[in-house]
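pasting for ref. prot 1 ->
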Amino acid sequence: MENLDRKKHWENIYSTKELENCSWFQPTPLTSLEFIEQSGISKSSKIIDIGGGDSFLTDSLLERGYTDITVLDISETALERAKQRLGNKANQVKWVVGDAASFVPSETYDLWHDRAAFHFLTDQNDVKSYAVTAKKALSDRGVLVIGTFSENGPKKCSGIDIRQYSEEGLSKVFENGFKKLKCLNIDHPAPFNTTQNFTFCSFQKS
């Protein structure tokens, strides 16, 4: 899927579906929060959430006292929905409209988080570009937390193909310049009584 089409696709998704009806909906993103807290970063560390859309991770991080949060998403509609929900708290967050495959960071981050955005990059050049960008964007010993559909998870999401990843597959993508900290597989209870299996891993820039 070309970048322009990808953007149109996600603008349409966020314009027509309520968050509670999206498969990625989580009232409290416990796994992401556990990985972030276990990373050992301070509450003032720079965090970027890739493909964060209007998820509740930003709300949860603010509630826990994290003060330097950036959210990147290809859909401006998604970010506007998040801003409206957060109200005045939205002013505490940096919002960036951009494609994860071609994102050029303007600052360095201590933690890079991505739940269910990376697996939409099915072109190998996009995958390689993403890994290079994440490495460049992270500070020394910065932490990458990434969650994708596992090999036991869906093969499509929101009507388009994804790439499934095992622990070994994710480790291979990020073998250059990172060391693996932790990986696990979890079941995400999606709406409409379905379950999606995820591979979650954390890596430290080496």
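and prot 2 ->
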Amino acid sequence: MNKEQDVDIATPFVQELVFKKTLNSVSFDKGFWSVTNFNELKDSVENLIMPKKGKLNKIEKEREKSKTFKELRRKHSAVEASINCLEHHGLNRCPDKGDDNFKSYTALGVLAYNLHKLGNFLQSPPKTGFPEFCKN
């Protein structure tokens, strides 16, 4: 995302994913909520996890208290943990100026994260089956 807010990219992002592949669920945080985003996406994805900002009405409370919503919302924390890990590998602030430098800095941060994961895998005792990062 470059000079964009979360709320502005939710619909085009999901529509591109739906075009490429059938999705069972998509999880967002409250920053992506808008009435327009919710209405446009609720029919595109079977389980849309998009918590509403502010006070909930009766229908919204019912939707957010459903078992499926709660289960998928808990899985969203893994995404947030990965974002936090990237921030710890240098992506919390970009000291460089300009678009090209920003892209370079981001690529180096992702590379550092991947090298860290690979190093952890190589140092871990051998296990049967595929490593966790190969399961997708």
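The chain is about 60% helix and 5% strand.
Helices lie at 6-20, 35-41, 58-64, 67-91, 99-123.
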